Amino acid sequence: MLLAPALALALLSSPTPERPAAPERPRAAVLEEVSGVVVQVDRKTHRIEIETQAGRTTFSLDRNTMVYTGRSLGTVLDVKPGDRVRLGRNAEFRAYWVQVGPAEAGGSPPARSAEPAEPAKPAR
Length: 124
Fold this sequence. Notes:
7-stranded mixed sheet
């Protein structure tokens, strides 16, 4: 009858099973939509650099990146410095889609102001 207390002690000392952790978001999921002005397109390294309100950011492109122009589907060849773009990116800053808008006047990105923009005044 010594076996019963030893078995009970073994069961009490065994670790309790842990609940599985919440599933992580897939790394491929689109996490953010970004907009800005194209500064540079490097077709050799498959990268696009855009000027956003937060500063310059570089995104990678691949053969699956969809490019939408004002008229139809396009290619990376349709993205040029000075173009206004919106894009969807994942956690690795890979662009899944790029929507190309009209180019900025002068073809260069807008200068960032050191001062924050003034809030809009309410209508009377």
